[in-house]
## 1
Amino acid sequence: MNYIILAILFLLSGFFMKYSDDFFDEKHDLKFASIFGVLCGLASAIATVSDVGAAYVFIAILIGNLIALKVDGIHHIISMAIFVVVCLICGIPDLNLIVLLVCIVGALSDEIGHETIGKVTDNTFLNLFFEYRFVMKIVIFVLAFAGAFDVFVFICFILFELAYEFAGITFEKLN
């Protein structure tokens, strides 16, 4: 897949994911949360079926969130359904189970740490580390440079994370 298109899909996925969550959590607006959930599901599914690195990232995020019980609203169910249907129809790249498991553990660690670390410590480093979900960033960085997938996927993942943060700031200012 073209690198520019892949980068755009990661950007859109991050932005739509955060907007979906914020419309649901902050505004209790199921309609807009679901619309952005559909867009997130589509963008991440298209990336997943088109690129092995994206498949590792987005499948790991989905499974990590499922295990952490973070799929907690209808907007998440809709997004997940769109993602799964597109992946089933189009097919996903062949994945190495070990690499996928490492990514899932990274995503799960981030979700658990994000929710719990502030409750157990005042350590600024640890709180920032899990607030901005650095476990997955490190995992994707190491796997990319180890050759599990293209290094550009790491850049795309950083773009995803930046879009997610930008969406949060934008949402706050506009709503």
## 2
Amino acid sequence: MVAVQGLYENGRIELSEDAPMKKANVIVIFPEEQATEGLIIGKSAKELFEEFTGCISREIDEKAERIGALDEKYANFD
């Protein structure tokens, strides 16, 4: 199975890339519309990633984080 994204408008489907074959049976799934409340409209995920990359300035001690997570997970294990 191959997934290709597209746009449905007025009974027509326009694919965002070339289909992998000339003719095939297809299944069309219409995703539910998501609420836009609280979302930043107009910025792509890449733009947001670039904007916020590096905004955390603390050093992360991976070993200490892992040990802390294990201690928390197994604290009440008897």
## 3
Amino acid sequence: MGELLLRGLALVAEIVLEIIFGYVFYSTGWLALRLLSLGHYPKLPLRVADPTGSRSAWVAAFGFICLLFIPVAWLTLTYG
């Protein structure tokens, strides 16, 4: 019973992380790259079927950098 509960929790955690990584980070990275490149890149649409696919993973990684590393760097430089 306990093992089944742990597997269920692991599945829920995986789905939540996929949604966060796939859609939030991808959307943020897509918007930031579009703004920085004046609308030229990425050529992928905002809504993709698989945001963690091989062609769109770099956009999500850029969104991750924008959402996590840039604010931490700003806080470090401001209050450090």
## 4
Amino acid sequence: MQVHTLRFVVAVLLTMAIMLFFYTSREKDYYSKSAEPAIKQILIEISSWEKPVFLHHLAPETRQTINDEEFDKLMEHYRSFGRLHSLDELNFSRTMSAFSLIGEKRINYSGDATFDSGPVSLNITLVERGGYFLVYSFALAKAEK
């Protein structure tokens, strides 16, 4: 490969990386004002672990991927965590934000929360529909001590 071609490729890749960094930084700032409070409200509501409440917050495509029996097992597992006490830290996923450039817009956060059962690690992906955030994917796990 020619040195000039290699320099050009490196310059293009570096420019794209810088542009993605600024884009995802802007997304992080924007969603810190809207998605983070929505996540807290969603977690407060769904931590009752009542099926209708949880279903109300799920995106339609997510509802279609799980049958009633699997959903009931999942709810039973999550009930063991109890109610949400606090949302300690949320980390915005720049990677998910960058991939949303080529597909549907999804916002992903991971972090720590405290439930009745103690510290919990969480991962939540949201989609924005009609001015509201819906849960696209959701996972809780007991935090390592």
